[in-house]
Predict the 3D structure of the following.
Amino acid sequence: MNWLITVDTQLFFFINHLPHVGFIDSFALFLSGIGEAGIVWFVIGAFLIFREESKDQRLFIPLGLTGGLAWSITELILKPLVARLRPSSALDVATVIGGFPLGYSFPSTHATFAFALVVILAYKEPKWKTGLFTLAFAIALSRIYLGHHYPIDVVFGGMLGWCIGMLVVRWYKEVSKKKKKRYNRKNETKRKRTSHPSH
């Protein structure tokens, strides 16, 4: 286990000690900011919902469920359980940008939110898949660059988020399939009654 922590720390320093210049720091802070509490993903989801008009406005259900699961699992269960100090607290030579974050480090809630909600949005809008995952990766990477998380925090958070997203998509597909079957049966019954009126 010690070797994993050593590799994790070395990789953290490699990313965290990349050249820090004003516009790169500002961009990383911007990415981290829009990823806070999944803000950017809910904004994209809202755009898709309003764009669809009356076609499918139920996207807020899997988005809300996914966001709730991601936050609960990371903030209420895993972080207190693992209680890993952030690199900004544990490493004296870490470069920290944007202030010292509160709470524990493992896993990254930003990364969990990003990859969980991206799975939902990519399911809804497959054409955006590459762009969405690129943005999720950039947000997750910004957390290391800013000195707020170790690489393992981000990698595990991303994997956890992906699993949460896939589970919710699977559930949502089943619910939608059952609803569609009920709708079809209802229409079929209505059609039969219309074609064979009682006398």
Summary: Residues 151-195 form the longest helix (45 residues). The radius of gyration is 22 Å. The chain has eight helices and no strands. The CA atoms of residues 116 and 126 lie 15 Å apart.
